[in-house]
Amino acid sequence: MILAGGQGTRLRPLTLARAKPVVPVLNRPFLAHQLALLRAHGVVDAILACSYRVDDVRAALGGAEHLGVTLRYVVEKEPLGTGGGVANAADLASGTIFVLNGDVLTDADLTAMRRRHEAQGSRATIFLTRVSDPRQYGLVETDAEGRLRAFREKPAAGEPITTDTINAGVYLLDAALLHGIPRDRPVSIEREVFPALIADGVPCFGWEAEAYWRDIGTPAAYHAAQMDLLEGRARLLLPPPGEPREGSWIGTGGTAAADARVVAPSVIGARVTLAAGCRVGPSAVVGDGSTIGPDARVEGAVLWERVDLGRGAVLRDCVLGADVRIGAHARVGAGVVLESGAVIPERTTLTRDDAS
Ligand code: GDD
Ligand code: MG
């Protein structure tokens, strides 16, 4: 079960154009990467608990047959929160289920997690990871056996931080537990359900893994996750569309001038035009139907579909939504995020301070 009903507020302006669960990551909807991970660990039935912009998600993923899983949608009339969302979809679930926040990118060994869950007789197991600043996450404390002692979601400013171990947003749950969650009001799995299970003495455990992990829910994290996949820090379970060529992936139907260069690792979408003298990469992601003008440079940047770069434009470590147009000789610098449809006049220089 994947929780995909949040509004994606922190990922604006990108989520003004597309729901967070399906923002493109290496030219595939984000959830496709999660479904590929689940599939790699034997999951063939997935349920999407959604409430917000479901049409976007359906348009991007459909039934997900191409990923080897059957995807069913359960839609909340009003957002029910993370716990309410899970409860609302409980009728489709039985046995032991994985529950994932729909915005975490990981290559964790879910098979090992499941083995551990079973061996311990756990009824709720939480994948735990460590971060340097845990304040924005769910803090989790365990005893020496890994049994959960406390779950504290996003401690308020001033509250002491007692651990750097956080909830990674991936759970294994005994589906029977879902029936105990109220369905008639919003419920937070983090603030209500886990603390209640711990208080009731239900066997709940943490599972720590040395795996890649990142929540892609801010523009900086969304950008960094793609660099991590391209540069090999995260294991790529689902290759980008296109033909692998010298460390890059090149989509079909494009045209490239003889002296246009693609520097690996990069992803070039379908029907992309690479004009004379341009250089794309390293670590560039170019969406379908984009045009890279003569002598333009694209490095460490993520471009959605149909982006148009003028002659001599330079992009570095930025994110451009769909249909963005960059005038000739304009420069867009690190950390800049441009909303879909933005038009940047020629010779403009944008740095992060302008964008914020
Ligand atoms: N169906 C449904 N309904 N899904 C929801 C709702 C809802 O009302 N509200 C949020 N979600 C989904 C979001 O779409 C997202 O996939 C997931 O639940 C988590 O919501 P976020 O808004 O991304 O939460 P967070 O990142 O602040 O915190 C959560 O994730 C952290 C790890 O990234 C918590 O689970 C933390 O404890 C955790 O550390
Ligand atoms: Mg999140």
Summarize this, please?
The chain is α/β, with parallel strands linked by helices and 356 residues long.
Q: How does the major sheet shape up?
A: 7 strands, mixed
* Integer tally of domains: 2
What sort of overall outline do the alpha carbons produce when their principal axes are compared? elongated
CATH fold-level label of the largest domain: Spore Coat Polysaccharide Biosynthesis Protein SpsA, Chain A
Give the strand order, joined by hyphens, for the main sheet: 5-4-1-6-11-8-12
Q: Report the uncertain regions.
A: none
The overall average pLDDT, rounded, is: 95
Just give the CATH class of the largest domain: Alpha Beta
Q: Helix proportion of residues, in percent?
A: 10-25%
N- to C-terminal separation?
35 Å
Number of strand elements: 32
Beta percentage is 25-35%
CATH architecture of the largest domain: Alpha-Beta Complex
Would you identify the CATH H-level superfamily of the largest domain? Spore Coat Polysaccharide Biosynthesis Protein SpsA, Chain A
Global structural class: alpha/beta
Q: What is the C-alpha radius of gyration, as a whole number of Å? A: 21 Å
Number of DSSP helical runs: 8
